[in-house]
Amino acid sequence: MELGSVVQFLENKNILVTGATGFLAKIFVEKILRVQPNVKKLYLLLRAADAKLASQRFHNEAVAKDLFRVLREKMGGSLNALISEKITLVPGDVTCENLGVKDSNLVEEMWREVDIVVNLAATTNFDERYDIAFDLNTMGAKNVLNFSKECAKLEMLLHVSTAYVSGERGGLILEKPYYMSETLNGAPGLHLDREKNIMEERLIELQAKGATDQEITLAMKDLGIQRARKYGWPNTYVFTKAMGEMLLGQIKGNIPLVILRPTIITSTYKEPFPGWVEGIRTLDSLVVGYGKGRLTSFVGDRQTILDMIPADMVVNSMLVAMAANANELASDDVVIYQVGSSVSNPMRLNPIQDYAQLYFKKHPWIGKDGKAVKVGNITWLSSMACFRRYVAIRYLLPLKGLQIANTTFCHSFEGRYSYLRRKIKFVMRLVELYEPYLFFKGRYDDTNTEKLRMAVREGGIDANVFYFDPKIINWEDYFMNVHFPGVVNYVFK
């Protein structure tokens, strides 16, 4: 694979980006503006009722963020002019035909001008309502593809998925596509039209019963988990993303398609500065809970490999994949890149707890009372059976006692009892959702991705600008000096 300058490739390109205010999308946009201000146009699709609200949202959720600090320092007073010239905000919605864009002139302009479409629109909530996840992650992918087919100059569609469409498979997981109706457990009967009908029938049934909004939300969340597990996926998020991939492969026609599957995305490694993160994700919620002194026990296999990759490395891999494949793919090709670290620089669960303990002893969390929180050793529970026994003895038995006392004393402890019951139920559901990743036995093959890395190294032109080789990461240094400080900084903002 030969690769020229990625910076030169981006010059005069028109790129449509969906989900433009999402975590990765903002890093993607900032990177392009910083390294190639001569990009012709970035069309940024975001949910908004009109252009004015789209502008407000993009400013508040992107440009005003610390993420754009380096670009602001570099550009000075000319940043606003650059954004005004290079960015066209597109109010819309990927769940709708023509991406929900109401301005017909803008639609025609994009069909005429867009060279590359990058689909980053998604909900990443494991426990999302089935109807919302299906509309965004599955049907949204279809709508983006159909829009791409109308783009006269289209060089490729880059669809960002997740490596965890593989479910709970062990061993080496290859960079292979999933085909329509394929299931992870071999169960027959997976058809998108049927899933859509089941979802709609459940909604009609709930509405007919006069269910509240909260009851409908809970029921649709349960339905998503139920349908996912029926076919071998652990949660609604990865199930709907897998169906989105299947749908793209089935209806792509002659559209050059690249699917990029990152693993667990963490804070930036280096650019625009180390440790930028937004939102508290799976691992981070546990780290924060530990730092605050609230997490004293943990369930998981200490030898499990947590496949992580910093966000700026994901964005760099996207940009290199674009440059390497634009106008190079045969019309029937689907190229898949798995972007992670489990093969080339694996990180196990056990050291992360050691790093967290060391970090919060050196930099203790300051509680609301102004006092430093002391952290101790974690009680490790090596199986879900151990976890359930631990919860039963430590929490459910005392809760039962509180229930009896509450009944005996005329519901005097009703508030306390209800709060603890909800908390235990929430924790149990959370652990069940994340269980597959705490005992994960797979590694993600990245042969295709390594070819991209080799092309960057051999080309030499942009090697320091578009780095995404996880072998350069010293995990202890990254966690202690980059990721943990970044997460703590985000929480305290």
- What series of H and E elements makes up the topology? HEHEHHHEHEHEEHHHEEHEEHEHEHHEHH
The number of helical elements comes to: 17
Using only C-alpha atoms, the radius of gyration works out to 24 Å
**3D shape:** globular
Largest sheet: 7 strands, parallel
- Compute the number of strand runs: 13
Strand arrangement, largest sheet?
3-2-1-4-5-7-11
| Percent of residues in helices | 40-55%
Give unreliable regions as ranges.
none
Terminal Cα span: 44 Å
Strand content is: 5-15%
Mean pLDDT: 90
Overall SS class: alpha/beta
Walk me through the structure:
The chain is of the alpha/beta class and 493 residues long. It is built from 17 helices and 13 strands. It has helices at 6-10, 23-35, 51-63, 69-75, 79-86, 104-113, 130-149, 192-208, 213-230, 236-251, 282-291, 311-325, 349-362, 384-408, 414-438, 447-459, 475-492, and strands at residues 14-18, 41-46, 87-91, 116-119, 156-160, 171-173, 257-262, 264-266, 297-299, 308-310, 334-339, 379-381, 442-444. Strands 3-2-1-4-5-7-11 form a 7-stranded parallel β-sheet, with helices on both faces. A two-stranded parallel sheet has the order 6-13. A two-stranded parallel ribbon has the order 8-10. Strand 1, helix 2 (23-35) and strand 2 (41-46) form a beta-alpha-beta unit. Helix 8 (192-208) runs antiparallel to helix 9 (213-230) and helix 14 (384-408) runs antiparallel to helix 15. It is globular. The model has no long low-confidence stretch (mean pLDDT 90).
